Amino acid sequence: MKELTCIVCPNGCTLYAEETEAGFQVAGNLCRRGEEFAITELTNPVRTVCSTVATAFPRVPVIPVRVSREIPKERIFDVMEEINKIVVSERVEKGAVLMEDVLGLGADIIVTSSILSEQE
Ligand code: SF4
Fold this sequence. Notes:
Blueprint: E1 2-5, E2 14-20, E3 23-27, H1 32-43, E4 46-47, E5 50-55, E6 62-67, E7 71-72, H2 76-85, E8 87-88, E9 97-99, E10 109-111, H3 115-118
Parallel strand pairs: 5-8
Antiparallel strand pairs: 1-2, 2-3, 4-7, 5-6, 6-10, 9-10
Bound molecules: iron/sulfur cluster.
Iron/sulfur cluster binds near residues 8, 13, 29, 31 and 34.
């Protein structure tokens, strides 16, 4: 039996999950999303990544970014290394793709703020 904290919503339910011959057993969840989260955690845990990247603009030295879809949990540090290599030299808009298909994981690195395009 594995104890987990559901991170799908702010309730943060404590989940108890295990795989049995009859399938996955999950307890402690207040809704079905918690069950899905627990099963994913036992089989292929994934996470979203939010971070910042450097820019070439002194008045806006960093801008926020995130991955366009969840990535395997064990690849977070690899993806962060790629994010840390980015330096934005154009006034990109919110939603701009800075890196496509990072490390072949099927996720893009996208800008989540318009602050750079709004600055003079
Ligand atoms: S089980 Fe449902 S209610 Fe509980 S934290 Fe997860 S998503 Fe929220």
